[in-house]
């Protein structure tokens, strides 16, 4: 079986599994307890936080451990919106955010906040001018994802940060779930105030995520309780997961440059080898992860207009290839992709997206195999076009 | 921006004649130690200055570390270029790129050391300053009190361009003014006192008293962490003496002299510390006392407590306000650890109304009635545990230190 669904979740690294198991077995004490075992557990937490600080060149106390990307995004967005309501009532995000951002903003709209959803161009990129036009005195939060999970577009965070620098009362949140370990991340340089990440997207455990909260920012916590994580995230911390998640982050970030290069090459190869399948429309196929800064190296999105994407996924799986339909989190619904619609692909294409996402284990051979099988599947399905 | 060099300026010791060589050598060693992880960086020394050639090593982490090295008063990131007008102008613009668009006053100061250079210093001021002004119209010239002074030094082998002057820790190079013992509690004050002492060139060994099981392991760890933080400022290692104090404290409790409890404890601590100082070859004791802060820090208390030893007692914080001390604690990175909620032995057995005006003779009398006090003190010294700490010391404990988990 060849697994090409790394943007949904990744196979955990064997060292991550070992760390998780060992810490789980040996450090079951509650880090908040004052006995020796508790304090050892708490030291592990501290070390984990220090490493996160080092990895991202920020303060260790600026990291909050969460249960994953969804919680990080919710805590950042709602936590900031609630805490800074007295500053203003306006929020800005984009039309192509992950559901955990998008739906959080929908909830805030229900609560009376005004939300601007920035449009994107045909590559899935927001325009800095649109942002400038949308921002006003009332804007308390701008939330823009780093790498889009469906089409791999990379938003111009440095430029956006430069704009937002001039609005010290507006917070800048970035959903970095798809970018950690794939692209360089410069929290300070880009003036980012809040940054979400998730461990299982980079060969870490599920149920673990991180939220960077710049020093000086207060958030309203989502959970009431014992006041763990500086009061931002009550609940006994998932220590084995936290240690393992930091290990995964360290491994992923240590090889980021090499990975970007390698995956970028595989991505080009894949695009080149499926570009001659006329039925398939490759989204962002014209962007090259080596040449262009606005595309991630690990995501290829193709549409087969007129064909239900599930059919392709099922048939490919029968031939030993695992891919997914749009983003895994929403792929069970039979609705066109909000992201593709925003990019103006049209309704038909937006209903037929397939996402291929790359991992560390893939070789050029795997890519060739994938494109052969894909061609074969398309050929097989061709007579059924429009019926699915 | 990439800088090629860092210029370090020496502190107050440059005025001292005979000791200068020793101080400079010590400082150079300290700088070399900072540069150890950056093998390509090289240093050269000239009168009152050290130059670091980065050779591609990163400016920021090195500069950050150097800011905490005692004996350096300021540093500047320097751009180096060829001694040629156009190249110098280019470098000047590069340096000015570091500032934002806020209107500021400005001046160019050029020193032509290499006299063959075709333009004189005055002329160069205009040639470089004018070039910068054309590019950055928000700047206004003010030759008397400029906010930005762009400096250029033209030597035969290269021209050096810089403007930023980063103030650094100052003081004397660590260990150039002798050695002292530091009474280190888990509180806010004593680490700050230690830092001040170190900044004045004192080599420091820390002494901590703990009263297990009345104080927790975490309280002890907290002190180790504080000592480790101080070791960072030493540029090397710092020795920490952990003295078991429970038996002595209990013997004081049984003397039923509650109001004198703290006086007795502090005197015992000083006596032990003086003995440790003798062993360590230290000639002073540094404490974090600040006049009037608590009962044991009234003038009368200090007098009675201090009389028990002959070594000079240095109290760097004695005239400081609490807020000043807190500010320094935050600046030197000990505050967050100090306020962790673990009791140290001084907060234990604290009487409801401690004496603020103890009588020396009464105190000495009480001490004389405590059975085997000298033996208890000797035993505590014997059981003292010594740790050598440095900034890299792993404090995460035996199992928690399993860094391969990360």
TrEMBL record, chain A:
Molecular-function annotations in GO: cysteine desulfurase activity; iron-sulfur cluster binding; metal ion binding; transaminase activity
InterPro entries reported for this sequence: Aminotrans_V_dom, Aminotrans_V_PyrdxlP_BS, Cysteine_dSase, PyrdxlP-dep_Trfase, PyrdxlP-dep_Trfase_major, PyrdxlP-dep_Trfase_small
Superkingdom: Bacteria
Keywords, in A-Z order: Aminotransferase, Iron, Iron-sulfur, Metal-binding, Pyridoxal phosphate, Transferase
Cofactor(s) demanded: pyridoxal 5'-phosphate
Any Pfam family matching the protein: Aminotran_5
KW Transferase (keyword) present: yes
Family designation: Belongs to the class-V pyridoxal-phosphate-dependent aminotransferase family. NifS/IscS subfamily.
UniProt name for this protein: Aminotransferase V
Organismal lineage: Bacteria, Bacillati, Bacillota, Bacilli, Bacillales
Aminotransferase class V domain mapped to chain residues: 3-370
Organism of origin: Paenibacillus abyssi
Automatic annotation (TrEMBL), chain B:
SMART domains named in the record: THUMP
Pfam families tied to this protein: ThiI (PF02568), ThiI_fer (PF22025), THUMP (PF02926)
Organism encoding this protein: Paenibacillus abyssi
The keyword ATP-binding appears for this protein: yes
Biological role stated in the UniProt entry: Catalyzes the ATP-dependent transfer of a sulfur to tRNA to produce 4-thiouridine in position 8 of tRNAs, which functions as a near-UV photosensor. Also catalyzes the transfer of sulfur to the sulfur carrier protein ThiS, forming ThiS-thiocarboxylate. This is a step in the synthesis of thiazole, in the thiamine biosynthesis pathway. The sulfur is donated as persulfide by IscS.
Residues reported to bind ATP: 183-184, 208-209, 266, 288, 297
Organism superkingdom: Bacteria
The family this protein is said to belong to: Belongs to the ThiI family.
Enzyme class, broadest EC rank: transferase
Enzyme Commission identifier(s): 2.8.1.4
GO cellular component entries: cytosol
Catalytic activity: [ThiS sulfur-carrier protein]-C-terminal Gly-Gly-AMP + S-sulfanyl-L-cysteinyl-[cysteine desulfurase] + AH2 = [ThiS sulfur-carrier protein]-C-terminal-Gly-aminoethanethioate + L-cysteinyl-[cysteine desulfurase] + A + AMP + 2 H(+); [ThiI sulfur-carrier protein]-S-sulfanyl-L-cysteine + a uridine in tRNA + 2 reduced [2Fe-2S]-[ferredoxin] + ATP + H(+) = [ThiI sulfur-carrier protein]-L-cysteine + a 4-thiouridine in tRNA + 2 oxidized [2Fe-2S]-[ferredoxin] + AMP + diphosphate
SUPFAM superfamilies named in the record: Adenine nucleotide alpha hydrolases-like, THUMP domain-like
Start and end residues of each THUMP domain: 60-165
Gene3D superfamilies, per the entry: 3.30.2130.30, HUPs (3.40.50.620)
Record-given protein name: Probable tRNA sulfurtransferase
